[in-house]
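Illustration 12: V-type proton ATPase subunit a.
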Amino acid sequence: MTLCQLFLQPDAAYSCISELGELGIVQFRDLNPNVNSFQRKYVNEVRRCEEMERKLRFLETEIKKDELPIYDPEDNPDAPKPREMIDLEATFEKLDHELKEINTNADALLRNFNELTELKHNLTMTQGFFDDAEMAFTPAHNRNQRDSDDDQVQLLYEYSMISHNKLGFITGVVPRERMVAFERMLWRVCRGNVFLRQAEIPELIEDPVSGEKLHKTVFVVFFQGEQLKNRVQKICEGFRANIYPCPENPHERRELAMGVMTRLEDLTVVLSQTQDHRQRVLAATSRNLRTWQIKVKKIKAIYHTMNMFNNDVARKCLIAECWAPVSELDRIQLALRKGSEASGGGTVSSVLNRMVTREQPPTHHKLNKFTQGFQNLVDAYGVATYREINPMPFVLITFPFLFAVMFGDAGHGILVTIFALWMVLKERSLKDKWRNQEVWTIFFGGRYIILLMGIFSIYTGIIYNDVFSKSLNIFGSSWRVRFGDDTLAKHDSVILEPTPFNYTRSADYRQMFSGTPYPIGLDPVWQLADNKITYTNSVKMKFAIIIGITQMGFGLFLSLWNHLHFNHRHAIYLEFLPQIIFLACIFFYLIILIFYKWTSFDGSKATDAPSLLIHLINMILFSYKTDPPSAAVFYTGQKQFQTFLILLAVLCVPWMLLGKPVYRIIMNKRRANYSTVTNHAAGNDSDVEEQHQEEFHDPAEKRGVVLDADVRDTDTEDMLDDEHSHQQHHQHEVEMSEVWVEQGIHTIEYFLGCISHTASYLRLWALSLAHAQLSEVLWHMILHLGLSMNGYGGAIASFFVFMPWSSLTVFILLLMEGLSAFLHALRLHWVEFQSKFYKGEGYPFVPFSFRLLLDEAPVEA
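Figure caption equivalent — predicted structure in token form:
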């Protein structure tokens, strides 16, 4: 990475930045960190882009409301020219205004239509009320038995006739759920001096105000006097009832009803035409919406980037600083030249200069869709320091392998692999399908990680010979049962001897093991053995220790690579050597003992084999007892050799603790002596320099500063070096105290960490045991119930128990156990592996890229 300076002509800056955005290999720096966002040069252009984005969001909302498809562009559109921005604004303004006008008119028409619909139902049902009232006023000998409501209407009519006053009434529509409260309120406020008739509208009616479809009820309230009329009107307003006019004359009511029906028919035609026009506008917009959104995002990104530049008024240019890969400088120059030509802005081209800086560059990794997920796992711990070794290529293999060691089941691995292959093969169609679902985004982003985890799980499942908790006998077991029928009838279980002949037993024990191990993985005979867990625990525990120590040792050798690259020669002798010697003296030696025990003790000597755990404890305690067989030595001279290893390991502790601080003390003294000599020589030359100062007229020449950006300012850097050395000389005591504390913590952390980290790798064995036992429990407690039955009943039972077995397998073993194994594998890499060599104190390279911009802020499909 290199820091570059760009000199851009104002007219060509937009086109040049557009070309760099398409290239996506330049990270710009903000040269105006103290300037408010609202005070920058191109803030008005950014605001215009935000206004266009708001209008496009409104158009997209309307398109989705009508459930119209939004078409993606076939090609990636280029960023439009600055003058095209005015045309886009005019187009968006026209569509926004037209669509809002259509919506306003449609809402008004729909509100009028709903009001007329309610009025139609109101007139129809009110006419029924008055017809019932007229029947109630017929003579008693011409009518049948009347109910209480008819009697009440008759009484009110007679009272009104006596008092020479006519009854008044109000009709309207109220939501059905408010009708009970409405009726109770009328009765209480009017003290029973009103008469209410109601009828429910059978279909749903859209409310003219809220637009919701509700069940409504038509009502008629009869009253007498203006006071009661005012009370009834206020109650109707309080319950948000829609009051409609209703003539007293039946003929006028019929004419009003006919007029309402005619207006409803006309409004239906107008609403249909309005909706068709809206559909045509939205359909035409949906074809270009995605293209417009991409163009606006690119315009906004360009002006936002240009706000980070300095405006050099004297040189009439824009000055930008950016980080870029050295290998891509030619492509950047070509993009700048292309942008200048596209703008047509004169003969002055853009200038790119490399700068010399002491700032730490960003960390850039060349990745693809396969390695991106693994790099995200590493970056979650910390972004690599610039030029620090990247553990991603190693994590790409070790992470799925350690996961598979804990998840080892070929059947479960096949299911995981099928799921990952589906995501990989269908990634184009699945990419934007559920982008708003966070869980799905995590799974889809790690599809290649899941694929490798599934493949490695199949491999470890074959090694464990474990397929849904069952073993496969593909090549034939290496064990044979050589017992007679009498022996098998007398015992519930028998012991299979690994030796060809055991003299302490009868001849029935001959040749039970062929002497040739099973070709791949665990022998299937262990599936039937009572001591299966004892055997597999021993093997998996030792493999976990071997894998853990090997990975930690590999991490230390990667730290050696870092020391060599950064030229930290002292760290090789003062850190790497004591660390690797300590690890080798105890833990690498333990691995050698494991392999030595496996190769030196066969079945005939198995009972006399020493215990590795007791052996390691005795090695630390310098205790060498021969009384129990498990404490016997492996080889002659073992006591002297192990004593030497322990003493050498103990020597590594002060070596690492004192080495680096003593080295820093020596180097500080050398810098102090060098600074004293340099200052004395500079004092002798100052008098001579003062005599020649009058000959210089340029202040820059007096300072010895070279203004060319391509030339290194050596005088300034030497001055900074002297100042830094001077500060170190006066503050070395404080810094040395920090060095002592830091080195002490680092030493304690490493030597204790070697023990704790080795024990931490036993989680490989523990989770593998838990996964195998859970799988076996689900098989025997659920699926075995159906498989153990015979006949049609067994087939039916197997059909019913398969669903709970498969569901528990997916949710418990694949999801929960898979997540647990994933997190444990991640911890082993972050803490046990990467802590040996990886600092992760850098910051990522985030280039100005239109592709990344559109991927990070995807347009919802």
